[in-house]
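Lecture 7 notes. Example A: sequence first, then its structure tokens.
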Amino acid sequence: MGNELVKKNFYTTSELAKVLGVSRISVFYRLGNGSIKGHKMGRNFVVFKKDIDIKKVKSLLRK
């Protein structure tokens, strides 16, 4: 059980920022204005992979 990989079905804000090529602050801004749908999990925000289309969000970031 120690070395098993756990598949997560969500991104943390840091992970999503890396995937999108933006800062964490930019991810928080988009969570706040609703352009990215996120959920509060404890003290942190997470974005479920099923709730986000990375290509669509990347195209919105370029506008």
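Example B, a different protein, same format:
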Amino acid sequence: MRYLSKYLSHLELLVPVLVFISVGLQKWKAGMRDAWKEEATAYKEIAERLQEEVVGLREEVRALREENVQLRDQLNRLLSDK
């Protein structure tokens, strides 16, 4: 009987500590999961913006190349007229 009461008194101390640790770990895991989810969302938004910027830059480069061809043609015509 004496051992049982001693065992129960240890359990009275141990169980709340284990519950506290368990709840703390669950909150920590949830916080980490939420933080990583926010980071992933932020990187996804950045990637989407960069993709849009790349599309715009490609169009601009294409237009500049076309203009370059036209200017070279004009320059060649001017040089050949002399």
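Note on Example B: The longest helix spans residues 2-81. The CA atoms of residues 50 and 56 lie 10 Å apart.
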